[in-house]
Amino acid sequence: MARPSRSEFNARTQKMVGSLRDAIVQGSLQTGDYLPSEVELGRTFGLSKESVRRALDILVEEGLIAKIRRVGNRVKGPFPSQESNEAAAGRTGGENTGGGALNPAASIARDEGRREDLSTPEFSIQTGQTVLCLAYHSSLQEEVKLQEAVQAYEALHPGVRVRMIPTPFPLDLAEHGMADVVTVTAWDALKLKDKDSSMSLFADAPPTDYAHPILSRPFQAEDGRLTTAPFVYSPLVLCYNRSHFAECGIAEPGEDWTWYTLLKTARTFNKQLDARGFVVHIQSINRWPVFLLQNGFQFNTGKGKRTAEDPALWESLRISRDLIYQQGDSVLWTDSDGDVERWFHDGRASMILTTFFGLNRLRGNKRLDYGVAPLPSLSSKDTLLLTTGLAVNRRSDSQEAAGSLIRYLCGQEVQSGIRRGTLTLPVHPGALTLPVEQLEGNRPHGEARVTRQWDRYRLYSDLHLSTHVLEAISEELKVYWSRLEDEAEASERIEVLLGV
């Protein structure tokens, strides 16, 4: 097929700009709506990503849309005059053509994940309801059945309607004034504190009950102010296939296990079973730091020695690399934690490093006989604690209603529902201790052993390093894990990142 000529590309660009402009001016696209993704626009109009962006730049210049970083392209208002529209049409090289080429009704999402105007006070003129915008990590729908909980809240509070926006970046929406309530992970909170130690983006957290003070630690500002109400949590745990252990005549993991015990056991499974002995998404920032935490390692200790030459660092990283190469040169790289849980679900992995969030992918597999145990140890039995909380945007005009929603979601009724219907761990002490016979789904053996080991839980902040440097080190370690450099070379590269 012949490559389109420059004139054809120009015509397509004009068609895209004209279609979107008409949709905005005529009201098919309203203030606060989001345009389709750049990929979808490119597919609709036969344009490259670069051409789509140039076309969108024209609409930005006209004041019709705004580009929101890491979110999308949002319709602005008020609209320009007819004269400015005509002038803008001249800049595209012709008049508006093909105004009906884009069907906004089909392309623009106007479901419970959108709101009519995400930057104005949250009030629906049509219904007289307060409208709250909840920006949340999309995985929470599976992990806590969030939509059902929100619907129950709305039934109890008919004067409030909640618009739900699933997004990888809830904090970005909060920073742009586009969300009243956001979900916040421990990692999100630490990144925010790196930029603003007072965490001024958030109002004070509404008072809620949670099982242990460590659950709130990630969400405390430098002055001790609690900015985010703890919602759910999970430690990193070892998950294992009980049938594989029975088939090979090996005792199930216990308190005496070290990572070297696991490595030996994994090699046995590799030889005797048609399965990988142990799998972990080692590149994840939610995984590899646990090896450092177990050795009590800290960056920037100020003891006058080169951090990257600390034996505790390299013992930690060495065992992580040994686990990758448990089967010699046969390495199984993963794209995500989801790969790990899927392989375990299908019986292709005997042991995995995971969380109770991830275990939800196993809940429906009634044939799987599996268990969880504390992580094997290095110099300690510590594990990484992952928490997710709920925060009120300080810029929200509906802070009272936002606080009410958070108190409901963190209350015993919703939290007990999370405990019963998922494998995610609720923070409410009454929900966390529900009798086993009330819990649904295929649940792991030994669950009680790991859900409340408070003295073993450690946080990212215990490493004493900023998030951007920790992320940079994570990228550098990929070279070390791939055996493309030795410890001395990796040490030099890490020292550079640490600014030594």
From TrEMBL:
Biased composition (Gly residues): 91-101
Chain ranges of the HTH gntR-type domain: 10-78
GO molecular function: DNA binding; DNA-binding transcription factor activity
Keyword Transcription: yes
SUPFAM superfamilies recorded: Periplasmic binding protein-like II, Winged helix' DNA-binding domain
Taxonomy, superkingdom: Bacteria
InterPro entries to which the protein is assigned, alphabetical: Bact_solute-bd_prot1, SBP, Tscrpt_reg_HTH_GntR, WH-like_DNA-bd_sf, WH_DNA-bd_sf
Annotated region described as Disordered, given as residue ranges: 76-105
This protein's UniProt keywords: DNA-binding, Transcription, Transcription regulation
Protein's recorded name: Extracellular solute-binding protein
